[in-house]
Design goal:
Layout lengths: L22 H5 L3 H32 L18 H9 L1 H9 L8 H22 L5 H15 L1 H7 L1
């Protein structure tokens, strides 16, 4: 009869889901599912193209428009995992980003970080010039930097 010890066992860890940045992410999907994703994206692209064509016809009747850019010529031809993941989460967001080329809005944390960095930069510049920095001066720099970024981004985060 030997000695047995009841040692605490380590807790099992839950691994995060794979990120859609490599082939392992796509390995979990069956071919039929991938084709369905591709068909859905093609359907959205065709619908958006029809809407753009209708808008262009309406605007052409009203006033001559500049020549269209070749931005959407390759849209949907090559899909990265991040594009497909974004499309599966929200097809409108995918269209705004990849179809129309609109930038993602900056979040509140990025705006605050930029404002803090601008404030610290100003403080160091005053110190190097031999001037004393006051709290009011730093507050103005912070408010100006925050105003350039957009306070509506901060309100949305709360």
């Amino acid at each position: 009869m030997g000695l047995t010890f009841d040692l605490p066992q380590p807790r099992p860890t839950i691994a995060p889901p794979p990120r859609p940045s490599n082939a392992r992410f796509w390995a979990e999907y069956r071919v039929e599912q991938l084709r369905a994703i591709q068909d859905k994206i093609a359907t959205v692209i065709e619908a958006k193209a029809r809407n753009i064509d209708l808008e262009m016809e309406a605007s052409a009747e009203a006033a001559p428009a500049p020549a269209p850019t070749g931005r959407n010529e390759t849209l949907g031809g090559i899909l990265s995992p991040s594009q497909a993941n974004l499309f599966l989460n929200c097809s409108a967001k995918w269209w705004f980003k990849y179809g129309l080329g609109l930038p993602d809005p900056r979040g509140g944390n990025a705006c605050r970080g930029t404002a803090v960095h601008k404030t610290v930069e100003r403080w160091f510049r005053l110190q190097l010039a031999g001037n004393a920095a006051t709290v009011d001066d730093m507050g103005e720099v912070y408010d100006d930097a925050l105003g350039r970024c957009g306070r509506r981004d901060l309100v949305r985060q709360r």
